Amino acid sequence: MDKNRTLNPPLPESSSTGSGSAPTTGAFPATAPYRPSGSAWKSALALLLVGGTLTACGGLGARAKYRGPFGRYEATHLLRRAAARGNADEADDLAAMGLERAVDALLDTPDLPTEQEPAYFDDANYVHEWVNHWLTTRTPLAERLTLFWHGHFTTEASKTGAWNTYHKINKLRELSLSSFRDLLYMIAEDPAMLIYLDNDDSTKEHPNENWARELMELFTLGEGHYTEKDIQEIARAFTGWRVSYEDGHHYFLFYGEVHDFEPKTILGRRVHNTFNPLFEGYEVLDILLAKDQTYRFVASKLLKYFFHPEPTQEMVNVGADVLKGGTVRDFLKWLFMHPEFYAEGTRNALVKSPLEYAVGLLYAAGKREVPMDGDLSYWLRARLDQDPYNPPDVSGWPLANTDWLPDASLLQRLKFIDFATQPPDSGPPPGPIDYSIFMDGAVNPLSLVAPEAQLL
Amino acid sequence: MNRRSFIKRSLFTLAATGMVPSLFSRTALAAGGNGKILVLYHLFGGNDAVNTLIPYNQPEYAAYRPDIAIPAANVLDLGAPGMTLGLHPAMQPMVDNLWNNGQLALISQVGYPNHNRSHFVSTAIWNTGDPERPNKTGWLGGYIDEQNDPFCATNFGSTLPRALRGVHTSGLSIESIGGFGLGSSDWEQQLQSELQRQIQQTRSGTAEEVRRAMDHMLRSVDKVRGAQAAEFAPATTFPNSSYGRRFRDIARLIKYDFPSQVYYASSGGFDTHSGQGGVQGTQANLLAGLSEALSAFRQEMILQGKWNDVMVMVFSEFGRRAKQNASAGTDHGKGGVMFVSGGSVQGGVYGGEPNLAEEALDKGDLPVKVDFRSVYAAGAQFIGANPAELVGPEFTPINLV
Questions:
Q1: B55-76: per-residue pLDDT in tens?
Q2: Mutate to test the interface with B, among A407, A409, A417, A444 (most CBs of B within 10 A)
Q3: Are A405 and B212 a contacting pair, CB within 8 Å?
Q4: Is A273 helix (H, G, I), strand (E, B) or coil?
Q5: In chain A, what residues touch B67 (CB-CB under 8 Å)?
Q6: Torsional class of A67: left (φ above 0), alpha (ψ -120 to 50), beta (otherwise)
Q7: Which residue of B has its CA nearest to A401?
Q8: Residue A330: inside a domain
Q9: Contact, A398 vs A454, CB < 8 A?
């Protein structure tokens, strides 16, 4: 092993405060929150896309483009997949733009709701806030994508406190279309995550392995690509990554006094930085971000969520290349313009999650906010089996497949039709009543008992 | 090749060579109909075995766990011959009602070889009975396929556990008996008849999978309607906890002679990385809830005259480290503890007293001395299924009955 080699740590945007401190004294202020993708990434992407086309075979390569018709029928499929809500007028608008412009429009920079302070939620419901935003935003794809990232980088409000998970969801939305690197850097320093996976309690005497394990098993490499020893070493590298609590909020803070200053070996790479020990964590992230397996793992999950329950290995490999060299936006643009995306076997191949089902149905019924005469968050949590703030466990939710449909929740989905489609007490709903995006061929609430209503 | 595609390929190969049909052949399994009932209860998160079945007399115990060790005076000593073991003080009801009646088997140091510390992988292994290839079907899947009746196994909860997934048939999954059904309003009546019409029409791909799920659901609704109509006012008071509600619902279906021979339920909260507590606290509350509910269930089964025909198996996907961590909690470990109870169960400690000496541990964890599949085998045997077919011929059923 090359003993002296350490990876170049990424330079944080504002690292002026921490690097001069002696490693064993005091707490290092938080640095390097996350870096938005800059132009360097774009050129790297361009190179990789060129590389991708050289290695890809036949029509499934990174540059393979759908060249068939793009009318209301195809735009309906695209809109339903991307946004999980819509109506025929919106599909027609997309069709009129042509495929590429339509895809660009869906992938526009996410519309960000104003972040509210914790006190605001004394009288407001976190889940309803999210649903209301999803029902009104001009970038609904960002919401479906944020739900994906929230299921991938899971936290449970019951452990983190609801506001911390809310804040994490807001940051995921902001970065939802950025590079996977940006997302991973953000999440490693996220207070909700530091609390959720117990890194906040980790010390050199007693490193807590929860974050280290899930970082590899669930967030990057997937099970089977690392050893128990790697987990222990990563846990040591992240000792000191904790949260502080000031003015009613948690912040990321590095505490040198609980950091383990001994060298670590992670996936065969030596990690040792006594000058700025905080950077050992970044080095670990970089080691994981340099692995092709990370992108295969994440691309496979994205494809199961946006494309097909069983994507081919070739789609996964090409998608992984696109993701590694670029952003999530590049990945989705590649997918949404891919010939396989418009194949008949792709249409309606996915199962809506309860949140998607609820949002899609409310929108189709013309609703633009959660109904006042009932508790949507209760429906989601207790009946439809998806509490958006409390995933069932650290592995998040099923990925758009029939695992969502045991008898009990399927039954509740049917009962929910009545709740969602009831006209408001006063006057007509604000939006058009149009079920055709929610389900191909649906004309009224009763049509929605067909199996196709469950599909995306 | 990734593991998933390997699994798929292996299954395909099995199917192509005709091995799958023989696995599920009627003669091989010959299950069902003996009137016995197996209740599986999963403690999700990894219950800390060391603070459940406590080797409290070993000096390492208190030394390993300065913040969370249960003082010897509080431990409920079991008086098991040759062992100094006791249960967590929160489990008093379980000692009074189950252990003292000789109806509680404690399976110590239970698990499987090369233990996996991931909740999900390990749960999949416990539910499939296969540490090598935890695939989509459960260890009871073969039994359910053989019965070809989705009501032969019932899960309480909204997510069907893999244990009850077969190749052709899966068990029933209901959240609670009361809330399961379509009402008599005009709208729900209309909805039902339209649904009946829709599911006549077969589809392809995912739509067909959904259609089958709907068909399954409708048949389940019909079946449970009977149990709903039947009166259930047990003399037993079940605690108002998630455990209590689950065991009450199970008792209710048993009373109604529901055709399930297998019931499955789970409760979470056992992933005590921080603030696990000692005599009181997180784990104590969980164990108390379980003990009270299980005691009530026993009493109700006695009143129904069914206790001798019931076997309850409580398991968790792994145990936890012998030493506590910095957060007054414990991290994922290996060997765990199972509880098996029932009127015909032979109480006792199986698997021996864990040895906490550093050199006796498996890298800081309790080693695995009993393979969980030999416990499952006893459960399979109890309900008249063929254990060798469900968990493999190498696992001889533990002599629990």
A1: 999 999 999 999 999 999 999 9
A2: A407
A3: no
A4: coil
A5: none
A6: alpha
A7: B206
A8: no
A9: no
Q: CA-based angle B186:B191:B196, to the nearest 5?
A: 130
Facing A451 at nearest CB: one of B2, B3, B211: B211
Write the DSSP symbol of residue B95.
I
CATH architecture of B28-391: 3-Layer(aba) Sandwich (3.40)
ipTM of the complex: 0.84
Contact (Cβ atoms closer than 8 angstroms) between residue B282 and residue B276: yes
In the three-class reduction of DSSP (H, G, I as helix; E, B as strand; rest coil), residue A211 is classed as helix
Q: Which long-range contacts (CB under 8 A, 24 or more apart) does A5-13 make?
A: A5/A269, A5/A270, A6/A270, A6/A271, A6/A272, A6/A273, A6/A283, A7/A269, A7/A271, A7/A283, A7/A286, A7/A287, A8/A286, A9/A273, A9/A276, A9/A279, A9/A282, A9/A283, A9/A286, A10/A35, A10/A185, A10/A282, A10/A286
Q: Which domain holds residue A375?
A: 354-454
Residue A185: HSE in the Cβ half-sphere, 13 Å Cα cutoff: 25
Give the CA angle between residues A323, A327, A331 to the nearest 5°.
Answer: 55
As for how many domains chain A has, the answer is 1
| 8 Å CB contact of A393 and B44 | yes
Rounded to whole angstroms, the Cα distance separating B328 from B65 reads 8
Summarised one tens digit per residue, pLDDT across range B372-381 is 999 999 999 9
State pTM to two decimals: 0.71
In a domain, A242, yes or no: no
- Residue A421, domain member (yes or no): yes
pLDDT tens-digit readout, A221-259? 999 999 999 999 999 999 999 999 998 999 999 999 999
The full length of chain A comes to: 456
Strand order in the sheet with B53-54: B53-54, B86-87, B76-77
